[in-house]
Design a protein that fits this description.
Elements lengths: L1 H24 L2 H9 L23 E8 L6 E8 L14 E2 L2 E2 L4 H6 L5 E4 L12 E9 L1 H16 L3 E2 L6 H11 L12 H11 L7 H10 L30
Antiparallel strand pairs: 1-2, 1-6, 2-3, 4-5, 5-7
Length: about 250
């Protein structure tokens, strides 16, 4: 009974904080943007045009990803410079950006299906572990392109105070980054994350990879049959010469 009262109190406190964040989060950032720019749009938010026809000289990337979770999953992105082998390699937390409810507690996530809740825009649990990735769509960038995109991502992180499962979720957040990069984004932000990333890739002439499914398929493949050792030829038996019987001995 005491535990139930504590949980109820936590929910009430969180709901109150959400209401405060709602009133502050939607007004203050907009007011600041209008002061800086008459049209309410920061200068660095103007979309850029990427040259996707060639990958020559492109050592930087933004990869849109989805991962599995106990709920319906999560959509986020990783960004940075390719390693010496031209690969992403092991992702660190400072390479991850995405919108999700603050803290690892499930309480803000549940409340966020009713009212907007305070958000975080960095790595969440599981984002840096490749085995949970269900879909990925990578865009290669030049150093100059990446400088602008990464600056926009940082700005977008600072100006995303709230998360809501329907009104503004993780799909919508990465969709904004995609639009800034001159990409088309899916109109339905209520899709499962894996479906959202797959459609994002398709709309922009690409194909999403599905590491989770590929790894599962490899596990299901039967092991290659071991080559049978060549049978050794049986030794030939030579019949012993017949011994002459006493009758034939003279």
């Amino acid at each position: 009974m005491q535990a139930n009262k504590k949980n109820t109190l936590k929910i009430k406190i969180l709901a109150g904080l959400c209401a405060v964040a709602l009133s502050l989060g939607f007004t203050l950032p907009q007011a600041k943007a209008q002061d800086d720019n008459p049209r309410g749009l920061a200068a660095s938010s103007a979309p850029i045009t990427l040259n996707q026809k060639t990958s020559a000289g492109k050592r930087y990337y933004v990869e849109f990803r989805s991962r599995s979770a106990l709920s319906y999953g999560h959509t986020f992105l990783v960004h940075g410079k390719l390693n010496a082998n031209g690969q992403i390699g092991q992702v660190t937390k400072n390479q991850v950006a995405g919108l999700h409810p603050a803290t690892e507690s499930s309480v803000p996530w549940m409340i966020g299906h009713l009212v907007p809740v305070v958000s975080e825009t960095g790595a969440s649990d599981g984002d840096t572990e490749d085995e949970y990735t269900t879909a990925a769509y990578k865009i290669l960038l030049t150093e100059q392109e990446y400088a602008r995109v990464s600056a926009y991502i940082r700005e977008h992180q600072k100006n995303s105070p709230l998360w809501h499962a329907v009104l503004y979720n993780c799909n919508a957040w990465v969709g904004d980054v995609a639009v800034f990069m001159g990409l088309k984004k899916p109109g339905n932000t209520l899709q499962y994350p894996e479906e959202y990333i797959s459609e994002l890739a398709k709309m922009n002439g690409g194909v999403a990879t599905h590491p989770y499914l590929q790894a599962a398929a490899k596990k299901k493949q039967p092991a290659a049959a071991k080559p049978q050792a060549a049978a050794k030829p049986k030794p030939q038996t030579v019949a012993a010469p017949a011994q002459p019987s006493e009758a034939t001995i003279r």
